[in-house]
């Protein structure tokens, strides 16, 4: 099932007891550094552990995201969780199971092949032995390092993995207090922090007395440099003062982005770090070219960021919904001048997270203020405007494709040139603290221009820049705009969203130019059997017809990619209907993710990815006016609503004998491409800049 | 500190008579969450633009985030926590779990409340009417289709129960 080399997570955290323990009778502790972001990862990890240990899933207690205690697995990002954490847990559980079986066999003086396990109890030739994991736990030393040598169950022997175990956290998330926002601590102080409207903005005079007057109950106003915080026991009072503070604040200086920062050609004229990733030899002949783009995209989490922190004079405790509790802990300690050992950071769940949003910054707010008010728990809550405008944005990109076609209409060479703002400015990346609260303090260190996301992590700007087709002489160049004034960072799929949109649009344009059917054209360029498998499956699901009319107002379009060129494969067909606006009516997806741990959970991820990507593709782009992002409320940043979502059908190719491949971000690129290609066919004209907004449709119709 | 006076209002929450300080236009959502610990209703925007805070006021959906608590004096407030008592909420909650309708779940309580109001006036809604009814509720995770199916499933179950009752 999962690849048999030692997963990175296990190499980094080799001790068995970092992952598993039998401390409570009848229960198994499984610790993971990965966190639940709404993607159902904890359920998949429960399945993997229960499978290898042969215990009922209800016995498992998952401890997730406790920096200082559980395993350090970096960020929960990049669709790595099942591969890395799942891979580690599987190997650890197989090894632990073998240790316990050996011990039982020696106590009973029998061979291990006579033993079996039923819900944690060891049986010999089908009969109870009186031994179980908990009874023998004291005999077995789990503080040793994993050898990685135990063999895990083959896929054919699995009874839990591969089934759709329902998520156990859902009932509480429908109607309980499952979220960090719901935590209440004795003596809690509510806090709001004023956000700088752009990087480096300097706050002018602020009438603090007016802020006190705006609050019904006593509040404190705390100012250091350009950081202003309002604190108090009564949340409504704190909020009232914050509203006034936002209104009255005057900002100067800093890196004011021009309104034109959203234009695709603004990006291409900026100073950039240039890099050649591949330099195939250009072919001779007439060159076809096209340039595509996407703008800034907001994460738009439904629950604004929130964090709690408490300082008792010696130790700082932080509760956060960050994707990376360990890196955040490092950055917090550095920013606050604390010893790493005195900081603990615990993950608590929040609304869906699709990348580097405001979670870490909110954690800094709470931690910074907790240090000022020892003995109190400070709860920092962001507003909707903070969440939409102060979270890092998904990075804008401009992507230019070119090719020379051979006499059969196949590319004789292929070039991709990418201009991109940074995709990774998480806390601690590129040795920078990367917490906006810290940037507002007096004497904040000058901003370090970030690097791109490392190639080993699947690239940032160049994610999926290598077209997953049999193309000769690929040329890949990136222009990385490191000094971009707007704070951008990781959003689901990183560069893959724009690159796949561009590549797959261009493939369609080439097919059209040479009079070929887009699906047949893709198949003619693809010898990878799994790529062909999803392409053919999606075409069949959608009833794809090569003779569909063009320019008739409704059409189907195709999109394909293999995420990061190493995770799951997906092909999508989108059906659109056009009037003044684009309506995506249906989407069919075929996905090859190898062994799928939880098919329904995986389908849920893909369906959600399709709808979110459709929203990005049709509607979303942040605008700037006078330096500020204008998307301070949902009305200014519409996302797809219930009456606008397509029906989505997902089919997984049966590949249970292949390793599990990450699929959490697989849908973003192919969905955008399929919609773009469908719109081009329905309209009889191509729109190359996202989103495919009403204004752009109208323009294309004229 | 303009006004430290209190302004007590009485209303019912999930059938229980309650009393709360509603001075200074404090929103109903803050009272439900802060005072009564009913954290099932959620803060999403405070602007009547996302629906995360939706509760029922005399059986009609209302945005608790922006509605001053004093305006509910003498009225009936129902929140997701009433699923233990209200058969329609219970059926919806169960159907949402059965359809695994949700990812992060943050949007769900508001959606369930609005669906309850829909089913009360339209017991067998089709896809389009469910979508139209839920248009004021945003879901960023993209669980929409499952949510629509869950509402249909709950509707079917409730009408079966009605038929056999
Ligand atoms: S929180 Fe009330 S509508 Fe968004
Ligand atoms: S399930 Fe996450 S916002 Fe709806």
UniProtKB/TrEMBL annotation, chain A:
Residue stretches making up the Aldehyde oxidase/xanthine dehydrogenase second molybdopterin binding domain: 17-131, 562-646
UniProt xrefs under InterPro entries: AldOxase/xan_DH_MoCoBD1, AldOxase/xan_DH_MoCoBD2, AldOxase/xan_DH_Mopterin-bd_sf, N-heterocyclic_Hydroxylase, OxRdtase_Mopterin-bd_su_IorB
Protein's name in the database: Oxidoreductase
Pfam families per the UniProt record, alphabetical: MoCoBD_1, MoCoBD_2
GO molecular function, one term: oxidoreductase activity
Domain Aldehyde oxidase/xanthine dehydrogenase first molybdopterin binding, chain residue ranges per copy: 284-412, 463-522
UniProtKB/TrEMBL annotation, chain B:
GO molecular function: 2 iron, 2 sulfur cluster binding; metal ion binding; oxidoreductase activity
Native organism: Ancylobacter defluvii
Designated name of the protein: Oxidoreductase
Domain of life: Bacteria
Keyword list, A-Z: 2Fe-2S, Iron, Iron-sulfur, Metal-binding
UniProt domain 2Fe-2S ferredoxin-type: residue ranges: 7-83
PROSITE patterns hit by this protein: 2FE2S_FER_2 (PS51085)
């Amino acid at each position: 099932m999962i690849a048999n080399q030692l997963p990175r997570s296990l190499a980094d955290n080799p001790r068995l007891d970092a992952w598993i323990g039998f401390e409570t009778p009848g229960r198994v502790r499984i610790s993971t550094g990965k966190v639940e972001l709404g993607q159902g990862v904890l359920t998949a990890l429960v399945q993997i552990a229960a499978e290898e240990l042969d215990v009922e899933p209800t016995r498992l207690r998952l401890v997730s995201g406790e920096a200082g205690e559980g395993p350090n697995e970096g960020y929960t990002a990049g669709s790595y969780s099942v591969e890395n954490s799942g891979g580690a847990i599987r190997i650890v559980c197989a090894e632990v199971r073998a240790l316990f079986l050996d011990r039982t066999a020696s106590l009973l003086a029998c061979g291990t092949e006579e033993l079996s396990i039923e819900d944690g109890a060891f049986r010999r030739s089908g009969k109870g032995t009186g031994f179980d994991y908990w009874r023998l736990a004291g005999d077995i030393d789990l503080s040793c390092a994993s050898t990685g040598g135990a063999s895990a169950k083959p896929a054919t022997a699995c009874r839990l993995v591969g089934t759709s175990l329902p998520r156990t956290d859902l009932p509480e998330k429908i109607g309980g207090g499952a979220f960090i926002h719901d935590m209440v601590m004795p003596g809690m102080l509510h806090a709001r922090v004023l956000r700088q409207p752009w990087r480096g903005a300097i706050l002018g005079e602020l009438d603090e007395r007016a802020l006190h007057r705006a609050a019904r109950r006593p509040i404190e106003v705390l100012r250091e440099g350009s950081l202003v915080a309002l604190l108090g026991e009564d949340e409504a009072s704190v909020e009232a003062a914050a509203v006034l503070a936002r209104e009255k604040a005057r900002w100067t200086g800093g890196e004011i982005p021009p309104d034109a920062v959203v234009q695709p050609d603004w990006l291409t004229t900026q100073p950039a770090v240039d890099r050649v990733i591949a330099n195939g030899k250009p072919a001779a002949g007439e060159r076809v070219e096209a340039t595509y783009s996407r703008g800034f995209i907001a994460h738009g989490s439904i629950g604004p960021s929130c964090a709690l922190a408490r300082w008792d004079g010696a130790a700082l405790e932080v509760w956060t919904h960050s994707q990376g509790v360990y890196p955040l802990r490092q950055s917090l300690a550095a920013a606050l001048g604390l010893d790493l050992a005195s900081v603990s950071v615990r993950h608590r769940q929040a609304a869906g997270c699709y990348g580097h949003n405001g979670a870490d910054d909110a954690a800094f707010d709470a931690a910074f203020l907790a240090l000022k008010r020892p003995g109190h728990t400070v709860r920092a809550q962001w507003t909707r405007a903070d969440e939409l405008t102060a979270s890092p944005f998904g990075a804008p990109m401009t992507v230019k494709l070119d090719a020379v076609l051979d006499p059969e209409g196949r590319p004789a060479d292929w070039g991709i040139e990418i201009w991109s703002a940074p995709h990774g400015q998480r806390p601690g990346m590129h040795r920078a603290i990367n917490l906006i609260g810290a940037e507002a303090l007096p004497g904040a260190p000058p901003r370090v221009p970030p690097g791109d996301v490392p190639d080993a992590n699947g690239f940032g700007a160049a994610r999926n820049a290598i077209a997953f087709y049999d193309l000769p002489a690929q040329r890949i160049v990136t222009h990385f705009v490191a000094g971009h004034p707007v704070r951008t960072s990781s959003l689901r799929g990183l560069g893959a969203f724009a690159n796949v949109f561009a590549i797959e649009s261009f493939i369609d344009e080439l097919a059209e130019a040479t009079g070929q059917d887009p699906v047949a054209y893709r198949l003619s360029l693809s010898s990878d059997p799994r790529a062909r498998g999803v392409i053919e499956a999606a075409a069949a699901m959608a009833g794809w017809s090569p003779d569909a009319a063009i320019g008739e107002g409704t059409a189907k379009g195709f999109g394909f990619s293999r995420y990061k060129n190493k995770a799951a494969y997906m092909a999508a067909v989108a059906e659109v209907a056009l009037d003044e606006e684009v309506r995506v009516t249906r989407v069919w997806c075929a996905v090859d993710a190898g062994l799928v741990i939880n098919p329904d959970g995986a389908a849920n991820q893909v369906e959600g990815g399709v709808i979110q990507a459709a929203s990005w593709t049709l509607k979303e782009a942040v605008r700037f006016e006078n330096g500020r992002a204008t998307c301070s409320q949902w009305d200014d940043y519409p996302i797809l609503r219930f009456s606008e979502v397509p029906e989505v059908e997902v089919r997984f190719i049966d590949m249970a004998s292949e390793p599990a491949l990450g699929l959490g971000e697989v849908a973003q690129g192919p969905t955008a491409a399929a919609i773009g290609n469908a719109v081009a066919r329905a309209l009889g004209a191509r729109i190359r800049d996202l989103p495919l907004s009403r204004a752009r449709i109208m323009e294309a119709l004229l | 500190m303009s006004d430290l006076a209190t302004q007590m209002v009485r209303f019912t929450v999930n059938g229980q008579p309650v009393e709360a300080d509603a001075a200074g236009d404090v929103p109903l959502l803050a009272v439900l969450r802060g005072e009564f610990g009913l954290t099932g209703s959620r803060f999403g925007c405070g602007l009547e633009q996302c629906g995360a805070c939706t509760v029922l006021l005399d059986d009609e959906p209302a945005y608790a985030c922006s509605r001053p608590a004093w305006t509910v004096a003498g009225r009936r407030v129902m929140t997701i926590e009433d699923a233990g008592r209200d058969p329609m909420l219970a059926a919806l909650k169960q159907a949402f779990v059965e359809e695994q309708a949700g990812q992060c779940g943050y949007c769900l309580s508001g959606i369930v409340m609005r669906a309850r109001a829909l089913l009360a006036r339209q017991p067998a809604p089709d896809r389009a009417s469910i979508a139209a009814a839920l248009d004021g509720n945003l879901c960023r995770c993209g669980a929409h289709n499952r949510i629509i199916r869950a509402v249909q499933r709950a509707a079917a179950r409730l009408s079966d129960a009605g038929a056999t009752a």
